[in-house]
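Annotated sample (chain length 120).
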Amino acid sequence: MKNKDLEYFKKHLTERLETLLAEASGTVSGMTDEKPSFPDPTDRAALESDRNFTLRIRDRERKLIAKIRQALERIDNGTYGICETCGGEITLKRLKARPVTAQCIECKTEEEARENALGV
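Output written by the structure step:
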């Protein structure tokens, strides 16, 4: 992979990581603020539902943060863009669509087919 491509992905992944960490920090501080008092149980239920939804999103983002960190490590150690399964090159088109990927499209497709066959 060309150095300019690696620089592009490193910059993109670093910016995304910083954004996710800032959002996570905002969520934590927003949920630890003083709890509002609701005389109407429906309002309280709506607030709790919104909080649960936000927490589910943040949990997915937590997993993405881990994948971004792993991708940045692969950039640093020179293995970014190389499929962890077959050792082949991951196309730029795939990396642009999913910068955190560690597998080429063929290996990922085969893995998903095996998982579906097992009912995972």
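Annotation: The domain at 1-80 is CATH 1.20.120.910 (Four Helix Bundle (Hemerythrin (Met), subunit A)).
Annotation: The longest helix spans residues 41-77.
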